[in-house]
Structure formats: C-alpha cells, structure tokens
Design a protein that fits this description.
Layout (H helix, E strand, L loop, with lengths): L19 H11 L5 H22 L3 E2 L11 H6 L1 E6 L9 E2 L11 E9 L7 H10 L5 E2 L1 E4 L1 H6 L14 H21 L4 E5 L2 H4 L3 H9 L4 H16 L7 E6 L7 E2 L6 H9 L5 E5 L19 E7 L9 H11 L8 E5 L14 H19 L3
Parallel strand pairs: 1-5, 6-7, 7-8, 8-10, 10-11, 11-12
Antiparallel strand pairs: 2-4, 3-9
C-alpha cells in the first residue's frame, strides 16, 4: 500500500493553515460583507496555491487544505439530510490546551432533525472536482470526511428525534447508507483516496470520556461495539481502486485536545474488525500511550505514525522521529509504516498555535525522515 499507491511514506491528515486573506474573506462572508461568489473565488485561488505548495514540498498526496470548511466536520455534517450542527455545545465536552495553560474550548452539538439521507448532488463532489483540476499529474488528491460516529458523539441519545427514529438500528443504518453513497459518488468522480476521521474509538478509552458518556445516558461499553460496527460497515468493500483510510486521534480544536489514553482497549476491534487499508494514529505525546497496541495490527494493513505535533510549535528532530519509528517497527514491519503529523494543522477555520513557517518546517522534517528511512516520500 506504499510506493505508487496510498498511503505514502510522507503523509498528512488533510487540513492546512489558512492564508490570512482567506480567513479575512470567510469572516467578511459571515458578516454579510462578501458574496458567496466572491468567497468561492478567494477559496479557489487559495486552494490552487496550497496544492502547488504541497507538490513543491515533495508530497505525493495533496488535499484542498479543507479551505472551504468552517471545521473538519461541521460542513460535511450539515450537508447530510436530517442532520444539524450548532454551536450550543454540551457539558463535559471541553478541550484542554496542549501547552498546559488549561484553556478550554466548548464543542459543537449535532442533532438529528429528520430522516438521515445523502443529498442529491453529494457533499464533497464539487470540492473534489476542483481539487482534481488543479492537482498535477502524478499527485494523488485525497478527500477527507468526519466519521459517522462523530455525529452521535457530539449529540448523544437526546439529540435524536425519536418520532423520526423510534428504532435506533434504523438511525445507524441510514447513516451508513448516506456515507456509502457519498463514497460511491466520489469514486465515480475519480477519487481514489478517502480518509475518514474516526476519533471516537480512541476517545472512549479515556475514563473521563466514559463518565461524560454515562452521565448523558450512554452505555460506553456498548458504544465501543456500535462504533466499530459502524466504521466497518462504511469502510468495507470500497469501490474498485479506492483506498479508504481511517484517522484516529483524541480531538484537535485550535491546538487543544479532548481525551487521552492508550489504544489498548480498542486496538483489537479497531484494527481487526474495521477493513480499512490504513490507520493514521496519533502518537505525538504520552497521552496516546506506547506502541504495544500495534501488536494487534494484521499483516494486510499499513500504519501511518502521527509522530509530529500540530498542537505545539516545538520542532521534532529527525533523530527522535527515526528512533520512534524504530520502536514502532518492533510491532509492525518497517515496510508497512509511514510518517505524518498526528492531526490536521487547521481542523477549524482559524485560531491555531502554529505559524506557516512552523508548518513548513514540520513538513520538511517529515519528508526528509521518510527519504532517510524508506528511500522515498
């Protein structure tokens, strides 16, 4: 799954820091001072530039930086029929600052207001078409989307209108069907690389998250199975020629994290029950635990080690990254490992701790290490 097909030795999660003119344009649009057409024109120019930026660095995979999104998940969620994301938040879903300052960011809440469905015309099809049009021959455009489990995670049992879904099995079935329709449509449009951001399974290992779930009426142990089953149903039997990868982290909102804990509790189900071709794993800090859960990884999967932080400006050294790759290779052979940041650089519109220079230096280190370790990026 490396070399000429994704994932590649030097990877990234998808979101990139926005240029200031794009941030200003989005703010002006939200304030009613810029038209939708003017915002799209600014987005198009910024995306064309950031694709050239990625290719200039030497990356084989390119994304649109998620430049058309308010956050990595809100826009996609609101694109589904019957689903609505709002800024109301929920008690207990606070995020903690990576630098230890204790600042907290309240999460979005997602509600089910009608039958969940895939909208005619799709959600990401236009975004992919433009990304493909500005990518050079030889580059692989990657599209990212939040996992279906995110919708329930940020909603919970009270978020589902039971007059619409008296049977929760139907809720999950409709959600899976909508996702599979989107994946099929992207494949038909020529997309060969799709990343699903599945943060719920690693978060559920955190005792604090278990308490929040229990307090709102969820059986968190039952949710482990439900989340694994849903991810499996979405990822299994992808269209021919399409690589589906899952990204697992513990939350990233403006450089803050939501949960901590090893993959140990969920590793067997995550790696062996979900038929994704690859898993992108957050491993940039002790909050993620050690590499021992990688012993559950089957021989047909690639692991992308997220060893580089997008939450802290501190620059990782090549020697340290190589040492950690070597440690991970005690569990997964080196030829089935890759390297990436632990999460996106800009999982929401603005307000991130890293600068554009920080981002560039981290990418350059990832690419240099990939060449040193594998002879290719």
């Amino acid at each position: 799954m490396t070399g000429s097909t994704p994932p590649y030795r030097a990877e990234h999660i998808g979101s990139l820091l926005r240029p200031q003119n794009l941030i200003d344009a989005r703010d002006a649009f939200d304030a009613g001072k810029l038209s939708r057409e003017e915002l799209t024109e600014t987005e198009n120019a910024a995306i064309a530039d950031v694709v050239k930026y990625q290719e200039g660095l030497g990356l084989k995979v390119v994304t649109d930086g998620e430049y058309r999104r308010i956050s990595y998940f809100v826009d996609f969620v609101n694109g589904l029929d019957g689903v609505e994301a709002t800024a109301r938040g929920q008690s207990g879903w606070d995020y903690n600052s990576a630098d230890g300052s204790g600042t907290k960011v309240q999460a979005t809440r997602i509600d089910i207001t009608g039958k969940i469905g895939w909208p005619e015309g799709g959600i990401l099809l236009d975004d992919f078409a433009y990304l493909k049009s500005v990518a050079a021959d030889g580059s692989t455009p990657k599209m990212t989307m939040p996992a279906p489990n995110q919708i329930y995670w940020f909603g919970g049992p009270d978020s589902v209108d039971r007059t619409v879904y008296p049977d929760m099995d139907e809720y999950w079935s409709d959600l899976v069907a909508a996702y599979r329709a989107e994946i099929a449509a992207l494949a038909k449009a020529g997309c060969t690389y799709i990343q699903i951001d599945e943060t719920c399974l690693p978060k559920i290992s955190d005792p604090n998250m278990q308490k929040v779930l229990a307090d709102r009426g969820d059986d968190w142990e039952e949710l482990v199975g439900r989340f694994a089953d849903t991810a499996r149903a979405v990822a299994e039997n992808p269209p021919p020629g399409v690589t589906v990868a899952l990204h697992h982290c513990r939350g990233n909102s403006r450089g803050h994290w939501q949960a901590e804990g090893s993959y140990e509790m969920v590793a067997d189900r995550m790696f062996n029950e979900i038929p994704a071709a690859a898993h992108f794993l957050e491993y940039d800090s002790p909050r993620a635990g050690d590499f021992s859960p990688l012993r559950f990884v089957p021989g047909n999967k690639t692991i992308v080690l997220g060893l580089v932080s997008t939450k802290l400006r501190e620059q990782e050294t090549a020697d340290d990254l190589k040492r950690r790759i070597d440690e991970a290779s005690q569990y997964v052979p080196l030829d089935r490992l890759c390297l990436s940041p632990q999460c996106g650089f800009s999982s929401s519109h603005s307000g991130h701790p890293l600068t554009h220079d920080d981002q560039k230096r981290k990418f350059e280190t990832i690419i240099a290490v990939a060449h040193d370790v594998w002879g290719d990026a």
